[in-house]
Amino acid sequence: NAGVTQTPKFQVLKTGQSMTLQCAQDMNHEYMSWYRQDPGMGLRLIHYSVGAGITDQGEVPNGYNVSRSTTEDFPLRLLSAAPSQTSVYFCASSYAGTGGAFFGQGTRLTVV
Amino acid sequence: QKEVEQDPGPLSVPEGAIVSLNCTYSNSAFQYFMWYRQYSRKGPELLMYTYSSGNKEDGRFTAQVDKSSKYISLFIRDSQPSDSATYLCAMLSNDYKLSFGAGTTVTVRA
């Protein structure tokens, strides 16, 4: 089992560019989520989904967009990158209603 | 005020010592309580998971939850250099949102 796979692992963007961070899981989990991790701030929830076709906002959703067309995939789109979006991004999945989330290895994003 | 507050650390302990990590929370809707371990430049991995007040043991790790005081702890006995990592507490509310503490970095000195 691959678990949760995130691509790319590293990315440098220029301000104003857009891009999509990919996340795929092969555990048939209903629940998927995106977090950003910044020094001293822990993991902050960006968007989450409790199943295909259902998404909702987390704590810091501005500047990000998501969709969930399949159970397996949950891409995160940066609409117009800003330096404040420089961070490490983690995707996670779990069975809905439980907290035992499995995390990907992260995407390190730098916006210059 | 953040929903989850975690003792910031960092902690540095000698090998074999007991490590004590603590979090407090303010949201009474939290139902599940977890501890994650994160090694440098890696994703968090689930260490302990519990949903009731009391203690849960798994090898050298003990998770403690006190819902009346809104307080959770993680104890690591006989700490090893391989336990050096950042430990994150996390809590799940009934709307499926996971809330994390900021993390405590632990260094176990050989």
Helix content of chain A: under 10%
Shape of chain A: globular
What radius of gyration of chain A results from the CA coordinates? 13 Å
The quaternary state of the protein chains shown equals: heterodimer
Largest sheet composition of chain A: 7 strands, mixed
In sequence order, what are the helices and strands of chain A, one letter per element? EEEEEEEEEEE
Low-confidence stretches of chain B: none
How far apart are the termini of chain A?
A: 36 Å
Given helix and strand content, the structural type of chain A is: mainly beta
Q: What is the total tally of β strands of chain B?
A: 11
Beta-strand content estimate of chain B: over 45%
Q: Which structural class matches the secondary elements of chain B? A: mainly beta
Q: Could you estimate the helical fraction of the residues of chain B in percent?
A: under 10%
Q: What would the principal axes of the Cα set say about the shape of chain B? A: globular
How much is the average pLDDT of chain B?
93
Point out poorly predicted stretches of chain A: none
Mean pLDDT of chain A: 93
Intertermini distance of chain B: 37 Å
Describe the structure.
- The complex is a heterodimer of chains A (112) and B (110).
- Chain A is mostly beta strands.
- Helices cover 0% and strands 52% of the residues of chain A.
- Chain A is built from no helices and 11 strands.
- Chain A has strands at residues 4-7, 10-13, 19-25, 31-38, 42-51, 54-57, 64-66, 76-78, 87-94, 102-103, 107-111.
- In chain A, strands 2, 4, 5, 6, 9, 10 and 11 form a 7-stranded mixed beta sheet that branches. Chain A has a 4-stranded antiparallel beta sheet with strand order 1-3-8-7, with no helix packed on it.
- In chain A, strand 9 and strand 10 (102-103) form a beta hairpin.
- Chain A is globular and about 35 Å long.
- With 110 residues, chain B is mainly β.
- Chain B is 0% helix and 55% strand.
- Chain B contains no helices and 11 strands.
- In chain B, strands 2, 4, 5, 9, 10 and 11 form a 6-stranded mixed beta sheet that branches. In chain B, strands 1-3-8-7-6 form a 5-stranded antiparallel beta sheet, with no helix packed on it.
- In chain B, a hairpin with a 2-residue loop joins strand 6 and strand 7 (61-66).
- Chain B is globular, with a radius of gyration of 13 Å.
- Chain B starts with a strand and ends with a strand.
- In chain B, 34% of the residues are buried.
- The interface between A and B is medium-sized, with 26 and 25 residues.
